[in-house]
Predict the structure of Flagellar hook protein FlgE.
Amino acid sequence: MSFNIALSGLKASQKDLDVTANNIANVNTYGFKESRAEFADVFSSSIFSSSKTQNGGGVVTQDVAQQFHQGSLLITSNSLDMAISGNGFFVTTEGPLSRDFTYTRAGAFKLDSENRIVTSDGNFLQGLPVNTDGSVKSVSLSTTAPIQIPDSAGSPSATGQIDLSFNLNSNATNLDPALFDPTDTTTFTSSTSTVVYDSLGNSRIAAVYYVKTTNPAALGASGGAAPGTPGVVGGSADTNNSTWAMFSTVTDDAGNVVNVDLQQDPNVANPGALQYQATSGQRGMLLQFDSSGVAVPGTFPTPRTEPLGTVANVTVPVVIPHDGAGVINNGADPDQTFNMVMTKLTQVSGAFEVSALSQDGKTVGRLTGISIGTDGLIEAKYSNGDTQAISKVALVRFPNDQGLTQIGNTSWTSSQTSGEPLAGEADSGTFGSIRSGTLEQSNVNLTGELVDLITAQRNFQANSRALEVNNSISQTILQIR
């Protein structure tokens, strides 16, 4: 009997050594959870024996229990590295259509050849479907799907409108708009530009130039004022030294800079009025401001009854030569027109400042980056400025984490002991948050394991000694004559 007791002690000590050695071996394994060998004594009795005089029958390994406490977090430079701070497991499958789920805390993810997020061994990370605003459509494990990042986004759309607001420097030096030349910086006061797109997504550069002047010599006839009449602008005396000419250029299909006329509103009775014309023939729009720096009503292409910047906008059609989609329209190659909408135009003392400049066109975007929020929302960023909500990383929890079945590769499957997985969103309820660019390290305490290793070794030696003593006693008995 004593031999069996000592032998059971040796087996228990060996199991303790094995568990401790496995913990030490995985001290650098991301997402690894340490285990603990748990033992119970062996005791048997019957109705014909007295428990007061019955000794134990040895020891038995009752469980190798996993410990799911949080491991320390390691900061990385890879946005696809993810760690769960708190409760929860990532969900993975072996194939894109598989419903055989496995669960892991190891977040060293990467993209495969089809831009799907996968683990180091090729399993597919599952995500919850989302709406365009990033809200989740369904929180259910059955609706999850492998997360795939599109490498392009959207279809091209032609620019239809540019929104522009600015302040012109009232102290700028006066120039002659008749001498305007976009290639000569000395012929204009200030300029700004933006990228616009045709219907095929080809980019153009649309530039706007401003020339401060008190000489309307290049002004077309208007309001009874003859061209070149000093101090007269469109029939109004320029007593505030606040007259500007605004010109524009745009690049064509070949990238050449083309002068464009800032066209008058077709509803204006005299389309030649209120325009400057440079020596090159290019026509620019008149801008005039009052003594307080506010745009003067009635001096713009669209008839006005209130100061600019208070209620209405000024809309100026601008033509881009040779729209890229022209070949589709029977080869007619028509021009593309967009509107330049100007609001809050002022002329006050201070540097030239553009307070708003945006346009509504875009080209096809190429993937430039991925961001992952603490709630697991994956957003893809594209070269055309688009940001798309792709998916939300699915997390699951279990009624009993220690009941999970280990399958290797730092993964687990559910069992009857663990209970059914419950899916949810990160950073909500009892689920932890997701840290992008971070990895959860093994939760093994190396110092504690080394101490446990010494303890297990001593236990093994003690049980070996008990076995040796039992052997000596048996030898003594056998030698009795």
